[in-house]
Structure formats: structure tokens, C-alpha cells
Amino acid sequence: MSLDLVANVVIAGVLTGLVYGLMALGLSVIFGVVRVVNFAHGEMMTVAMYAATLLFGALKLDPFLAMLPVAAAFFVLGYALQKGLINPFITRPEHSQFMLLVALAIILVNGLLLVFGPDARNVQVDYQLESFELGRILVDKARLYAAGAAVVTAAGLFLFFRRTLTGKAIRACADNHLGAKVVGLNVKHLYALTFGLGSVCLAVAGCAMVVLVDVTPGLGPYYTLLAFVIVIVGGLGSMAGALLGGVLIGASEALAGLFIVPSAKSMFSFGLLILVLLFRPQGLLGKRP
Amino acid sequence: MKREFTYLGILVILLVAFPAVAGAYALSVATLILYFAYTGQAWNVMMGFAGQLSLGHSIYVGVAAYAAGAMFYHWGIGPWAGLWVAIALCVALGLAIGFLAFRFGISGVYFALLTIAFAEFTRIGFDHLDWLGGPGGMFLKVAQRDSIDLLNFRGPPVMYYYAMLALAASAFIACFLLLKSKAGYYWQAIRENEEAAQALGINVFRWKMLAMAISSGMTAIAGVFFAFYYNNLFPEQIFNISRSIEIILGPVIGGVGTLFGPILGAAVLTLLSDGITEALAALGWEIPGIKQVFYGVVLLAVVMFLPNGIWPALARRLGLNRDLGR
To answer: What is the ipTM of this complex?
Structure first.
């Protein structure tokens, strides 16, 4: 096994990991503020992936351009979902919230199955087979673009939370729910806004992911679990942690696929998750709750 | 309490007499209901009594099913010996997970995700154990359907029905007694407010571990039943997170922390699922996925409009003690 091969695999894993990281970032932001674990996260992402294949099939719209309309639609859907369904549940016990989102996940997976059938769908664009050569290292164009889109979106979200008044208000809600209410913030609106933003992460990650893999309805639960692993490894509620977790999981999955059996690759991730939970339960970059 | 026991007596008589009037299909549905009533009761010890949300109970069903199944498959050792091995393994596993989680102060959402991680880890691990059949599955010798062979737990469907009825009834009684015991009161104190319980001098760690041991041991028995009832085991199916969700659905829909909740929830969900299948077949709408969409919508409606589950609402209507054993 040559060093070149390993380097290629790691780079591909890191780039895919950045897209995973963006997906997990959505989960992390939602949990960090609303304190609800979105058990329908991966299922929502597959909806975005199907939306991208539809736009590509009907309008020949490149998935990287389809990100804009899909993200806009997801923002509205996420906002409505939080406002209509989840807000009444924020004071209820965790198992009750869990049931709500599991029911939603069941509806989404099977709704997709109903509409699109069980067969895999994909988009075919010409740059999928091209790559950049850096010496002896090959980087897939599609993968690099996908990772770029993920980084840009994450950076945009980061700036929003740091620089804008609304972003600061959302962080205030996350830090102190009651305090935010006392100073007159519209907490329910800010929660819905947060869920909308988390959904935008999903929309972008979904559109980017569809260039890299084929989509089936059954992919949803897999991505949900993957997102859990990533946010816990990185630190639930930490934005940088989600990206770091994504990169770590992406690279470790790629390496596990190379050195062990490919089908055992997620065992590696779950093993890493268990270790992190036991020795650093707040995650690599998380703060102690 | 008198009225409650009268209703309970009528229910038991009906269930015992049920196979006399039921067809093969109804019997299999009833067995499934009792199975979920039992596993729901076992999960309820963790969540409903002690307040620890486990989302990975499929791990105990799976490990127990594979333990007893492998002993039978490889060495011809019957399920009665396998049962004890399965229980011992699952209790040890439960205690190990509990020890790791509770020692490091992992609770709430983090505990729930840890249990999922362990179940998934085990699922993928079993997929790569060739001794147990790997992803291709393990098949136990098909049951003798005409004669009853209690030693090997082989027999007609009615035998499995009564076995499951006995298990569900024992679990009900055990949970009733547990709730009235010292442990039961300590658990409820921990569930309501862990810090306050600790401040009162309750050894929170020890009682949570006890809940874990009882819950995983009870679930193990269901796993052994599963192995000898279905006779084929696939890691992909038995450890799947949707199996854990199925276990949880009954008590959550029925009423977490109540004794009747898991039973009622299991009945409602199983009948609902079968009812939807039949209704769709009658309408000729047999498109893959449509059944689960309806199921999801009903689930959504129940969690939204009956936040405490069906049993507390129903009990109020019937004028029963809604907290029966709460």
C-alpha cells in the first residue's frame, strides 16, 4: 500500500467529512439553542437530496446552483416545523420530543419511498469524473466543490451568529432561556429561526452530497446516526466541533474502509463515539454543561 | 382499587380463553401484542420508573437471542440452559453500559445517544462474526408445529402464545411489586429530581444500576423467546434502531411510568399497524411506504394530543385510578 494511496484516501475522506460536518452543524445549532435533538435530521437531508435530483432532472439545474432555491425552501420549512410542531414540545420530557421527531422521520422516509420508489437516484454532471492533480495527489473536482460549499456555508453561519444582532439574540436564548425572555426577546420566533438555519445547513449539505453519492430513501436513518456521532465527538452545541467531528469521522471512515473491511467502517465511528462519551462526554470542543 | 382488580381479572380470563376462539392469524397478532407489552414493561423499568432514557434496548434482545440461539445451533443445548446464559450476558452488558454512563455522569440525551451507539456498534460487530452467521443470518432448526416439546421450546403457535402471556403477566406483577418496594420509591425520587434524591442520601448510582440490571435481564428473556419463535436471526434486523423504537413506542403511546400503559400501547400499536395494512389492502392501495406514512401520522397525532399517553386519558374516562401503580 503506497503512501500516495493513503494520502489520496485521507484527502477524499476529509473533503467528504466537511460535508458531513455541515450536516452535523445543523443538528448542533438546533440542539445548542432549542435543546431538542432532531431525530429526523438525516431524513430531512435526504429530502434535500431528492429535491436536488428533481431540479436537475426537470431543469438541468446544477446541484451547486440548486442549493439556493432548496436552501430557501428548507429555511421556510424548518421555520414552520419549529413554530408549528416542535415549539409546543420544548417543555415536555425528552422521550416525548423523541417520539415526535421519530414519527416525523418515519413519515419522511416512507413518504420518499412512496413518491420516488426504492431505486437509487443520482445526478450526472461532467465534473464528477474530473480531478485536480497536485503532484501525485488527485483531488476529485466534485468533492472539492462540495467541501467548498460546506465551508462557505459554515463560515456564513458563524459570521451570522457572531456579528448580527439576531445572531447574538439567538445565542442569548441558548445561554439563558429565562433571561432572554426577561429582556423581551421573542424566544419562540428565535427558536424557529434557528431551526430554519439548521435546515439551511441540511439543504446545502444535501445538494452537495448528491453529487458524491446516489440517494435512496433508506439513507436517512444512516445520516441521522452519522450526524449524532459527529456532534457528540465534536461537542454537542459547538459549531467548530461539528466541523472537526465531521472531518475526523470522514477521514477515519475512509481509512477504515481502506485498511479493514469497508462494511465495518461505521463500527470505527461508533467505537470512537463511545470512547469520546466516556472520557470527554462534552465532546472534543464542547464546554461542560 | 377494587374496580381495577375486577377489570384486571376479566382481562386475564379473556386472554386465557382467547386461543379457543381465535384463528391462527389472530393468535399470532395477540402473541406479538404480548411480546411488545412485555418488552415495553421491561423498558419502562428504566425510563418510566428510574427516568433513564434508553434508546438501544434492541441490544439486549439481540445479544440474548444470539446467545441462546448459538448454543442451540452449535451445541444443541436447549433454551432453558441458554436462557440463563442470555440473562447473565445481558445483565453484565447492561451493568457495563450503566457503569460507564453513570460513573461519568452521563444522563438525559447523552445517555440516550450512548445506548444507541452501543446497539449500533454491536449490530455492525455481529455482522462480521462468521460464527454466528454474519449478515447472512443464523437459522435455527424449524419448529415442530404439531407436538409440544417443552424441553426445546418447540410447539404449535398456541404454546408460544401462552408462554408470552405468562411472561407479560409475570412482568406486570413484578413491576407492580417493584413500584411498591423500596427500590421503586427510590427510582421515582431519582426520576423526579436526581439531585434532590442524592441530597436525601439515596445512592443514586446503585439504584440506577439496579434498574439497568432488571431491565436488561427482563429484555433478555424476550430475546430468547424471539430466537425460538422466529427461528431466524439477522443482525441487520434484530439490532436495528427501529427495533429499539418499537420497544419504546408501546409504553410511550400507552403512558410512561404506568403499569397498564405498555400493555395498552402495545395492543393499540399492533392493531393499528395491522388495521392499516388490511384497510389499504381492501382499498387496493398497496404501494410500498404508504402504510408507514399512515402509522407515522397517527403516532404524531397521539404524541401531540395525548402527551401523557392513552392510558391516563382512558383511565380518567373509566373512572379508574389513573396512577395505578405509579
So the answer is: 0.83
